[in-house]
Amino acid sequence: MEAEELFRQNALFHGESLHWMGAAAFRFYVMAFISYLKSEHAKDDPDAINGFAFNLEWWAKKPREVSPIAAELAEACRYVVEHYKKFGAKPEIYGDLRPQYEVLAVKFDALRINSRGKS
Question: pLDDT tens digit string along 9-25?
């Protein structure tokens, strides 16, 4: 996928774009970012998960826009927690991002459940 290739080239730079794009673009490109995170290319890329947490915090405040992909976002958060060592995030630089991702997973799970009840 071409979009995933952009994240492979520079996840920090292109990942910042997830914050500024419209909802439809976010829903498309975040899936490519998640694919990048799950790939071997994201090994030792702590900036990717640090920036992604920031973006997810922002998008979690927009339930209408993210509820269609809330399950995928929750699963991505759990992936980061379960594979945290892969990213090489040094605690003295990033702190421990796992609790933030655990909270985000719960938020996105709640959005998924709530949006299902409104259909």
Answer: 888 888 899 999 999 99
Residue-wise pLDDT tens digits, 57-66: 999 999 999 9
Domains identified in the chain, total number = 1
d(CA 42, CA 86): 8
> Residue 65: CA atoms inside 13 Å, Cβ hemisphere, count?
16
The range of the structural domain enclosing residue 46 comes to 2-117
Residue 46 tokens read as 């702590």
Torsion of CA 58, 59, 64, 66, to 10 degrees: -170
Alpha helical stretches, state H, the chain:
2-9, 11-20, 23-38, 46-60, 63-66, 70-82, 84-87, 91-94, 98-117
Reported pTM: 0.91
